[in-house]
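hey m, so remember when u said the tokens were messed up on ur end? i reran from scratch. heres the input so u can diff it against urs
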Amino acid sequence: MIANGSPERWRAHGKPDLTVVILTFNEAHHIGRAIASVQDIAREVLVVDSFSTDDTVALAREAGARVLQHPFTSHAAQMQWALGHGGIATAWTLRLDADELIEDDLALAIIRTLPGLDRDVTGIMLNRKHLFMGRWIRHGGRYPLWLLRIWRTGAGRVESRWMDEHVVVDRGRTIRMAGGFVDANRGDLTFFTAKHNGYATREAIEVLAARHALFDEAPIALTGQAKRKRVLKNKVFQRLPLWAGPIGYFLYRYIGQGGFLDGRAGLIYHLLQGFWYRFLVAAKVAEWESELAACRTRDERLARLATLSGLPIAPAA
């Protein structure tokens, strides 16, 4: 059951010193629901919009959010811009995607726990659950999925990546907080596949950028589950033949990690997200690798990759 608001009894606790940051582009179908789910835990909701052409901005302001607009290049760059230019004045910051929700039990845990945390606690991991075609995808390695989504303002920064970016804290320690944190996108399969096609383009950029040392940014040291997944992806998966990685990954998720237990929705989800998406990334890498072979310099490779991807990848300074 997804929360649409908090029980009256919670208000006796008062709102914690927390700002929720939401990035948007044409999220009119989600934004009101997302803001409603955090209205009793946040002193401010900051929406950073990429010049939506629908009613996102009007709906966000109507729901009580403060709205800034900034051109979009990547989720990582947009979130880092929000942290640096959003005027966040609270002690804590929470990142929430427009299609995500904070459920009642997690909202109450935040209200009760956040004000009394020790000063050395600078980050909080939330356990995200994914709803797909009306079903909670609980298997195939999709749950538990711990993500750092709350941090002391000023202590967190975002990895400079085109895809699969994480927020990390540069000091202190992180803890886990139980409760409902839900990815519940209302889009259909056409939306899902179109979105993942875009994700595949961005992930292919990341693979090729690492392979050819195209970006100068020093990597951020991840920890825990995120670190293990990144190492397996970089050290094992990307070194397998084009066909072997996606097939092996799907079989591991669907059989080895029990994805078949998620029923028909799980079959569709794990096949699309665990096989088709991974194969699409590998195929784009293979296609673009041959295109980059004729380039002699890093700037030529960056310019060619920008043309191939259609994304604003800046040449080296």
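this time it looks ok to me. The longest helix spans residues 263-292. if urs says something different then somethings off w ur setup not the seq
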